[in-house]
Design goal:
Shape: globular
Helix content: 40-55%
Distance between the termini: 26 Å
Order of helices and strands: HHEHEHEEHEHHEHHHEE
Number of helices: 10
Number of domains: 1
CATH topology: Rossmann fold
Number of strands: 8
CATH class: Alpha Beta
Radius of gyration: 19 Å
Largest sheet: 8 strands, mixed
CATH architecture: 3-Layer(aba) Sandwich
Bound molecules: S-adenosylmethionine
C-alpha cells in the first residue's frame, strides 16, 4: 500500500528538485567535483559496451547519462528518467544526441517494453521512500545477466559536508526533516546497501568504497553556499530562528568544521559507495 506520507514526501521531492535543479547542475553535476568523481567510476563498473540499451534512473540533469553515451556508441541507446521536469529539461538541453531520450518516471513505477542491459542510479536510491519497490522494478526491467550499478553517499559523519549542518540544525529545529521522509543514511554503509540489493534478488554484489575530498572554501563560504542551495521550505525553517539561536547554530556548525580546517580553508572527506550487481 502507498502511504499518504510517502505521497506527500514525493510531492515535496518533485517541488524541491524542480526548484534546485538549475543550481545543482551548475554547482555539482560535474565529474571532477568532490563526490561526483564517482561518475566515471560508476560507469566503468557498469562495463558498458557498444550497442547497449541503458537506463539512467533518477538521471537528474544528466551527469551520468552523458558518460554512458560516450561508451555505448552510435548503436547504443540511453534513456534518462527522473521525476523532476526541470532537471530533465536541463539534461535534454545539455545532451543533444539522437540515441539519448529523457522521460518523466517515478523509480517505483516505470515500465518499458524492452529490457535494459544496464541500469545506473547515482545518488538517488536513498530518496525513494519505497526503495524495495524501486529495486523490484529495476530487476524486472533488466535482462537476465544485466547489470545494476548504484552510487550512494556514506552515512552520517563520513560526509561531514552534510552531517555538520544537519546534526547542528536538528538540535535547534527538531522537525527540520519533515515526518514521512525516509532515512537518507540507510544505504550509506556496505552492510545496509548489500542487504537491500540481495533481498531484491540480485547476485554477484560488489561494493567499492571511496573517500573523495571536497573543499567548500572558508567557513563563511561553506555556510552561505549551503544555505543558498537549500530548498525553500528548509531555508524558511532556519530563517525563523531568533538572532541568538542563529548565532549559536552558526557557532555549533563552525565547531564541527575545525578538524577539517587548515589556513581558514575547509577540506572535507566524502565517503561514497559504488555497487555493482547482476540480475
Ligand atoms: C542528487 S540527484 C542525482 C541526479 C543524477 N543521478 C546525478 O548523479 O547527478 C537526485 C535525483 O533523484 C530524483 N528523484 C528523487 N526521487 C525520485 C523518484 N522517486 N523517481 C525518480 N527520480 C527521483 C530527483 O528529482 C533528482 O534529480
Amino acid at each position: 500500500m502507498v502511504s499518504s506520507s510517502s505521497i506527500e514526501y514525493k510531492k515535496r521531492m518533485i517541488k524541491t528538485w524542480n526548484e534546485i535543479a538549475p543550481r545543482y547542475h551548475k554547482r555539482w553535476a560535474n565529474k571532477s567535483i568532490g563526490p561526483f568523481q564517482s561518475t566515471q567510476k560508476l560507469v566503468k563498473m557498469a562495463k558498458l559496451r557498444s550497442g547497449y540499451f541503458v537506463l539512467d534512473l533518477a538521471c537528474g540533469t544528466g551527469a551520468v547519462t552523458r558518460e554512458i553515451l560516450g561508451k555505448i556508441g552510435k548503436t547504443g541507446h540511453v534513456i534518462g528518467v527522473d521525476t523532476s521536469k526541470t532537471a530533465l529539461q536541463i539534461a535534454r538541453k545539455s545532451i543533444k544526441a539522437e540515441n539519448a531520450d529523457f522521460a518523466i518516471f517515478d523509480a517505483e513505477n516505470f515500465e518499458f517494453n524492452q529490457k535494459f542491459d544496464v541500469i545506473t542510479c547515482q545518488y538517488a536510491l536513498f530518496f525513494f521512500p519505497n526503495a524495495t519497490k524501486a529495486l523490484h522494478n529495476i530487476k524486472k526491467s533488466l535482462r537476465k545477466g544485466g547489470t545494476l550499478v548504484i552510487a550512494t553517499h556514506g552515512a552520517g559523519n563520513t560526509v561531514p559536508y552534510f552531517s555538520n549542518i544537519l546534526d547542528s540544525v536538528q538540535k535547534f529545529i527538531p522537525d527540520y526533516i519533515p515526518s514521512g521522509a525516509p532515512d537518507l543514511d540507510r544505504f550509506g554503509n556496505k552492510a545496509g546497501l548489500k542487504k537491500a540489493i540481495a533481498k531484491a534478488g540480485f547476485s554477484q554484489i560488489m561494493i567499492q568504497e571511496y573517500k573523495f575530498w571536497y573543499s567548500p572554501g572558508t567557513f563563511s563560504k561553506y555556510l552561505s553556499d549551503y544555505l543558498k542551495y537549500l530548498a525553500k521550505p528548509l531555508k524558511e525553517k532556519i530563517d525563523k530562528l531568533n538572532p541568538k539561536q542563529k548565532a549559536e547554530l552558526k557557532q555549533a556548525i563552525k565547531q564541527k568544521t575545525i578538524p577539517y580546517t587548515k589556513n581558514n580553508v575547509i577540506k572535507f572527506p566524502w565517503k561514497v559507495l559504488i555497487l555493482s550487481a547482476k540480475n
